């Protein structure tokens, strides 16, 4: 890398200076600059020019900086004046140089355009709002940084231009009106679903782009039996809006005992519209084909803002290329979607046209005989809904996992053998055949099933299905024998759970790019099955060449190191190196490196040369092995560790040489970072090979090597009779490899249907490749890295850098509810956080002052998190955005930028208090009066009709709403009433912090009685004291000795989650010390269990190391403890139970639903999703809670419906105090009655008057007070 590669400041991207200059000033300017450099006429003037370009570049690619300057004319004018001042200084110094004058003219033009952009942007935003005002809601039109950065890229992270506006329409009916409006506004339209594309198909190529996000189009029908045109009998179908997540359709089909065949690996986040426009497929494509094969019909908006409805006739319910021809009926409608336009058109397409003969997948033909929408990648219209056929999977399925420990070339033929066997078997269907190579096996953390010490080199996962159970079992056994014959081992899963676990590793394949900060080049070629072995050989050859080239680069770096006469040595009073000996070792090291280099270079130069048959390293073989086959099969190795490192360690023995060896290891680590390799995983049954190359996007040499490898891979695929894309599409990344005739045919089609380029302007057209694309990168920063390291922003940036943008976090995220106007998924928040960190860095470097608005936006991202930590589990690279949000809140607090929130302040004051008098004083106004006032406000506002609009269609929550709206959010769901007037401690008379209470039932106490330590926490003790009392009452009834903490204590979790880490840590430390004192005082009690009745308390107490406080103890939720003791309800009739499992479930030892069903006698239905309370969220950000509650209310209603009609309310039970409060808010609207499981059990087992009875009994000789 030359020193002049990146001199433009504030460049937090993969672009070099050349690309930025060309982008902002034009290619001629770069040529002029190089000419001046050649004449050595650059210096201070060049640096000032680069400052100008750096300012423009960083602002124009960061919406947060753009918006800040738009809102602050004074700051904007200061920046413009600074740019012009630098240009003036260059003019003063140019001394009549004509070339410098040309550069100045280009730069002045760029500054004028930059200045004009702000006025133009403000004007166009106003026009957009006026034009679309009657078409969709105002908060469906987004210009903010979060919305724009969320839609600037897909799963690739390639970016070209930010969208000007993002639209999130509520319904299909709005689509044509939006398209018409955007056409009037001269904006290009980019359809967008889940953003999971791997080729940049939805990446805007122009800065005048409007992205239409279809995620709110979530309408999905029930499974319907339908008469299809030309089909004799009814077929099961399902109708979906474009925004329906693929996984939801799969689950709906599964619930009906059927299969939805369109199952890409991105099913957790991809949407139906994207599946149709890309013609997506997955593992089931081997049996039923891709999206097109399974489509009955689809609707789309055209570039004329009209409608098209395409219906397939004479559906064969199988692979479309198997029929002689496929017939489609195309009906056109006016903008209202109802008025027909012209006569229906019949499109007859030969079956052979859909895929290249002999291939199971092929999406390279973008024209596809003019079939609208399919494989067009959003270029000819916007898919709004579709109907699919569903399939019946045979009754018995077996999943087979095959592990091959020999070389892939020996194992790969097993794929063809398995496919041929299943195809020939009359009673068996091959329902899935997936492959992972050695690199993927390592990346996903695959646990070897065979009793071997090493990981396998290849893994195959196979689903075989049959209506004959014996046939399914025999087929699975035969497949295992196929593997055995090739040195592999096989394992068969029968149960649904075992089969699910077998497939889990396949879902984590995106983790291959974790070590390159989540950037990879992703290619999905299709190879004829008989040629898969040749393809893997070709990839092995590429990998061997790349590996040797990287190792030669390492040897060159080591040679340069040892060429230095001054080696780093450790010298002190005890150690002094002998100069003569050092020189001797240096020369020997150089000789070693040269010898090894010669040997490795010869391997690389003579890969196809035969090796001597008497080579002792080679096994007996009938024909001579080439260098390539010997390296491929690991008979000979190119090993840094064995051939170089080990020799250097033997050479440089001694304490004084430690720095030399450490330097060698550092060099190795640095060079290894730039090593390019190719990893494979396949939908092996149809030859669809995902060929992935992880790359550090800020390493130009690495990118060049990777791109060269891609070119070889594409040529290899086509030479073997394959195609360059099977399901990912073409987009930006593969256009250069598409043949000119195919591009020209598609261009002709686009001239016919969209001559004005209203949709996806430039895409799939000549030149629309990666030449203008960049990725964000902190990898080459210097001054910025110092700033990052010196602040907590560095730790935050580091914690999110591996995000793959795969969207697997979306389904579980409580702040990603599109139809509630809530689009704050971890994926989107990570993209926004990265941009805000860039904004902080830029403003810190320029010393113009960090905008306060950025801190507010940073806080807004952090606020939109319930800290449920659910996103970590599906994340392939284990990012927990709950932890990131906590770090962001802490950063804001430490910098004094966290805004005061009265709700948060009051909550924390109540939780932090430990003095009984203070708690009593706070409880009266906050709980008694506050809750009553809130309920009164709810009643009043509801009568006035101010609540319904807000809860029916929650508004967007970007920033804080106005005061009136905030008040309505605060009262739109009523708080619970009828709470106990006192805390549980006050009712028991145990508020003295100097005593340790021990509660026991004298009548049931015996030598075998358990002793437990019960930590009630704030919610179960101060707020819902009936929870703590019910827990104590049940333990009392069991004859358990219950030790309570001395005085009122908080676990420290609310403080930690709220961004007060120091306070949380202090509380934790104080409590741990206190509990050690308690344990010493009560050392005569054998406490083996610590009981909690709150999930956040459980999460925090897990950090207390209780096993060191009460040796051998364990933490259990009260409900788990009761289940283990055999306590349960029996003979309870007429009761119907929903169970809300808290986000912070306290049940860590047993499955929560298992516990709930065991305690309540079975029949309990799970009510999923967050209740919206989330600790203090409902009082600190009630606007966000309104959105979350929108989704939860849907879930409760569905649960009540599933339980059937009943005369009395359904009991909605939980095991979290905060959730109990949250669930109480739904009672009036859903006819449910919230309560705690332990309270319900106390009522049923101890009687309705259980509380008064318990207080009387425990107060009569049931309390021992031990002085601490």
What does it look like?
The protein has 1268 residues and is of the alpha/beta class. It contains 48 helices and 30 strands. The chain is globular and about 95 Å long.
Offer a quick outline of the entry.
The chain has 1268 residues and is of the alpha/beta class. The strands form six sheets. It has a seven-stranded antiparallel beta sheet. The chain has a seven-stranded antiparallel beta sheet with strand order 15-12-14-13-17-18-16, sandwiched between helices. A six-stranded mixed beta sheet has the order 25-24-22-23-21-30, sandwiched between helices.
Number of helices: 48
Strands ordered across the widest β-sheet = 5-6-11-7-8-9-10
Total number of strands = 30
Would you tell me the structural class of the helices and strands? alpha/beta
What do the pLDDT scores average to? 91
Largest sheet: 7 strands, antiparallel
* Span between termini: 68 Å
Overall shape = globular
In what range is the share of β-strand residues? 5-15%
Low-confidence stretches: none
Radius of gyration: 34 Å
Helical residue percent band? 40-55%
Secondary structure layout:
Blueprint: H1 17-25, H2 27-38, H3 44-60, H4 63-71, H5 73-93, H6 98-132, E1 141-142, H7 145-150, E2 165-167, H8 175-184, E3 188-192, E4 209-213, E5 224-227, E6 234-241, H9 246-255, H10 272-278, H11 285-288, H12 291-294, E7 295-301, E8 307-313, E9 325-333, E10 345-350, E11 382-389, E12 396-404, H13 408-411, H14 413-424, E13 429-437, H15 438-443, E14 458-466, H16 469-485, E15 488-493, H17 496-504, E16 520-526, H18 532-563, H19 579-605, H20 627-632, H21 640-651, H22 658-673, E17 679-683, E18 688-694, H23 700-719, H24 740-753, H25 783-789, H26 792-800, E19 816-817, E20 822-823, H27 826-846, H28 852-863, H29 881-894, H30 902-912, H31 916-943, H32 948-952, H33 963-971, H34 984-988, E21 995-999, E22 1011-1015, H35 1017-1023, H36 1025-1037, E23 1041-1043, H37 1053-1057, H38 1061-1081, E24 1087-1092, H39 1095-1101, H40 1106-1109, E25 1114-1117, H41 1118-1124, E26 1137-1140, H42 1152-1160, E27 1165-1167, H43 1177-1180, H44 1182-1203, E28 1210-1214, H45 1217-1224, H46 1227-1230, E29 1232-1236, H47 1237-1246, H48 1250-1258, E30 1263-1267
Parallel strand pairs: 2-4, 3-4, 22-23, 22-24, 24-25, 26-27, 26-28, 28-29
Antiparallel strand pairs: 1-2, 5-6, 6-11, 7-8, 7-11, 8-9, 9-10, 12-14, 12-15, 13-14, 13-17, 16-18, 17-18, 19-20, 21-23, 21-30
């Amino acid at each position: 890398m030359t020193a002049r590669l990146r001199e433009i400041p504030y460049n937090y991207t993969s672009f070099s200076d050349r690309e930025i200059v060309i982008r902002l000033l034009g290619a001629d300017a770069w040529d002029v600059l190089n000419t001046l450099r050649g004449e050595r006429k650059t210096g201070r003037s060049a640096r000032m020019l680069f400052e100008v370009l750096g300012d423009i570049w960083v602002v124009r690619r960061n919406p947060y900086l753009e918006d800040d300057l738009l809102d602050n004319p004074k700051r904007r004018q200061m920046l413009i004046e600074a740019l012009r001042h630098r240009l003036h200084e260059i003019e003063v110094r140019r001394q009549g140089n004509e070339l410098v004058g040309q550069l100045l003219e280009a730069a002045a033009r760029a500054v004028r355009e930059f200045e004009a952009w702000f006025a133009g942007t403000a004007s166009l935003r106003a026009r957009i709002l006026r034009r679309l005002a009657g078409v969709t809601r105002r908060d469906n039109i987004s210009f903010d940084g979060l919305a724009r950065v969320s839609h600037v890229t897909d799963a690739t992270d390639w970016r070209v231009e930010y969208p000007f506006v993002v639209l999130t329409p509520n319904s299909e009916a709005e689509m044509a009106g939006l398209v018409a409006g955007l056409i009037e506004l001269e904006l290009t339209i980019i359809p967008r679903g889940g953003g999971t594309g791997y080729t940049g198909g939805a990446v805007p190529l122009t800065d005048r782009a409007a992205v239409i996000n279809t995620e709110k189009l979530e309408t999905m029908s029930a499974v319907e039996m339908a008469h299809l045109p030309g089909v004799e009998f009814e077929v099961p179908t399902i109708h979906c809006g474009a925004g329906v997540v693929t996984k939801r359709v799969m689950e709906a089909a599964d619930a009906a005992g059927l299969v939805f065949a369109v199952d890409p690996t991105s099913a957790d986040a991809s949407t139906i519209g994207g599946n149709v426009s890309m013609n997506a497929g997955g593992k089931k494509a081997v049996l039923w084909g891709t999206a097109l094969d399974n489509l009955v019909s689809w609707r789309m908006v055209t570039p004329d803002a009209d409608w098209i409805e395409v219906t397939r006739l004479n559906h064969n319910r199988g692979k479309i290329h198997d029929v002689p021809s496929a017939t489609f009926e195309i009906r056109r409608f006016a903008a209202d979607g109802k008025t027909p336009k012209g006569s229906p058109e019949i499109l007859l397409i030969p079956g052979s046209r859909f895929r290249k003969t002999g291939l199971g997948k092929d999406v390279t033909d973008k024209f596809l005989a003019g079939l609208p929408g399919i494989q067009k990648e959003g270029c000819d219209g916007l898919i709004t809904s579709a109907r699919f056929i569903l399939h019946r999977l045979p009754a018995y399925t077996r999943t087979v996992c095959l592990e091959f420990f020999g070389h892939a070339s020996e194992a790969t033929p097993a794929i063809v053998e398995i496919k041929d066997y299943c195809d020939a078997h009359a009673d068996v269907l091959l329902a899935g055949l997936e492959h992972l190579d050695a690199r993927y096996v390592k990346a996903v953390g695959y646990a070897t099933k065979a009793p071997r010490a090493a990981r396998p080199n290849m893994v195959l996962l196979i689903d075989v299905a049959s209506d004959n159970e014996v046939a399914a079992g025999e087929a699975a056994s035969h497949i295992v024998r196929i593997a055995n014959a090739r040195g592999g081992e096989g394992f068969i899963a029968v149960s649904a759970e075992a089969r699910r676990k077998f497939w889990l590793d396949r879902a984590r394949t995106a983790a291959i790019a974790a070590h390159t900060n989540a950037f990879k080049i992703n290619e999905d070629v299709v190879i004829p099955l008989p040629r898969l072995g040749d393809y893997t050989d070709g990839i092995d050859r590429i990998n061997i060449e790349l590996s040797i080239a990287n190792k030669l680069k390492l040897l060159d770096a080591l040679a340069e190191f040892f060429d230095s006469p001054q080696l780093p040595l450790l010298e002190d009073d005890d150690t002094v190196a002998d100069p003569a000996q050092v020189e001797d070792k240096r020369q020997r090291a150089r000789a070693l490196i040269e010898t090894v280099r010669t040997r490795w270079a010869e391997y690389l130069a003579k890969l196809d040369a035969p090796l001597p048959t008497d080579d002792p390293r080679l096994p007996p073989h009938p024909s001579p092995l080439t260098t390539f086959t010997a390296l491929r099969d690991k008979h000979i190795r190119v090993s840094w560790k064995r051939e170089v490192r080990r020799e250097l360690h033997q050479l440089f023995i001694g304490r004084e040489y430690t720095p030399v060896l450490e330097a060698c290891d550092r060099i190795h680590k640095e060079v290894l970072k730039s090593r390019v390799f190719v990893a494979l995983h396949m939908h092996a049954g149809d030859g669809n090979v995902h060929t992935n190359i992880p790359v550090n996007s800020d390493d130009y040499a690495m990118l060049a090597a990777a791109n060269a490898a891609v070119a070889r891979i594409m040529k290899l695929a086509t030479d073997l009779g394959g195609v360059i894309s099977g399901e990912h599409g073409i987009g930006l990344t593969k256009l250069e490899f598409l043949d000119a005739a195919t591009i020209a045919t598609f261009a002709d089609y686009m001239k016919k249907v969209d001559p004005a380029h209203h949709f996806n302007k430039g895409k799939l057209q000549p030149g629309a490749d990666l030449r203008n694309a960049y990725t964000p990168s902190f990898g080459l920063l210097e001054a910025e890295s110092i700033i990052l390291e010196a602040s907590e922003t560095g730790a935050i940036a580091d914690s999110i850098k591996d995000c793959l943008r795969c969207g697997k976090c979306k389904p579980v995220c409580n702040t990603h509810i599109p139809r509630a106007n809530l689009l704050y998924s971890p994926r989107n928040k990570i993209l926004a956080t990265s941009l805000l960190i860039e904004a902080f860095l830029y403003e810190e470097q320029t010393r113009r002052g960090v905008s306060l608005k950025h801190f507010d936006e940073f806080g807004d991202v952090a606020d939109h998190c319930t800290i449920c930590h659910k996103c970590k589990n599906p994340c392939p690279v284990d990012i927990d955005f709950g932890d990131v949000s906590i770090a962001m809140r802490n950063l804001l607090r430490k910098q004094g930028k966290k805004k005061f929130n009265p709700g948060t302040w009051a909550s924390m004051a109540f939780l932090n208090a430990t003095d009984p008098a203070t708690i009593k004083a706070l409880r009266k106004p906050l709980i008694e009066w506050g809750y009553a006032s809130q309920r009164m406000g709810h009643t009043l506002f509801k009568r006035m009709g101010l609540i319904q609009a807000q809860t029916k269609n929650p508004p967007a929550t970007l920033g804080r709403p106005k005061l009136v709206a905030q008040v309505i959010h605060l009262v739109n769901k009523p708080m619970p009433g009828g709470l106990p007037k006192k805390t549980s401690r006050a009712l028991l008379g145990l508020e003295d912090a100097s005593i340790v209470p021990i509660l026991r039932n004298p009548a049931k106490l015996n030598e075998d009685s358990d002793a437990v330590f019960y930590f009630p926490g704030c919610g179960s003790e101060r707020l819902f004291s009936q929870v703590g009392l019910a827990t104590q009452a049940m333990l009392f009834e069991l004859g358990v000795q219950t030790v309570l903490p001395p005085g009122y204590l908080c676990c420290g979790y609310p403080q930690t989650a709220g961004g007060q880490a120091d306070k949380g840590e202090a509380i934790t430390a104080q409590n741990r010390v206190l509990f050690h004192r308690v344990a010493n005082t009560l050392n005569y009690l054998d406490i083996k269990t610590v009981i909690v009745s709150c999930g956040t308390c459980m999460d925090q107490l897990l950090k207390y190391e209780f096993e060191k406080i009460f040796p051998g103890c364990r933490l259990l939720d009260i409900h788990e403890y009761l289940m283990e003791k055999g306590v349960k309800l029996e003979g309870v009739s007429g009761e119907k139970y929903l169970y809300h499992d808290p986000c912070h479930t306290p049940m860590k030892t047993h499955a929560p639903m298992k516990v709930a069903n065991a305690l309540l006698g079975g029949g309990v239905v799970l009510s999923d999703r967050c209740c919206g309370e989330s600790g203090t969220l409902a009082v600190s950000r009630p606007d966000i809670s309104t959105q979350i509650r929108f989704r939860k209310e849907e879930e409760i209603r569905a649960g009540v419906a599933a339980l059937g009609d009943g005369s009395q309310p359904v009991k909605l039970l939980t095991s979290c105090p905060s959730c109990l409060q949250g669930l109480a808010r739904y009672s009036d609207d859903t006819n449910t009655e919230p309560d705690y499981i332990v309270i319900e059990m106390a009522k049923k087992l101890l009687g309705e008057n259980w509380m008064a009875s318990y207080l009387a009994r425990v107060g009569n000789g049931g309390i021992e007070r031990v002085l601490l």
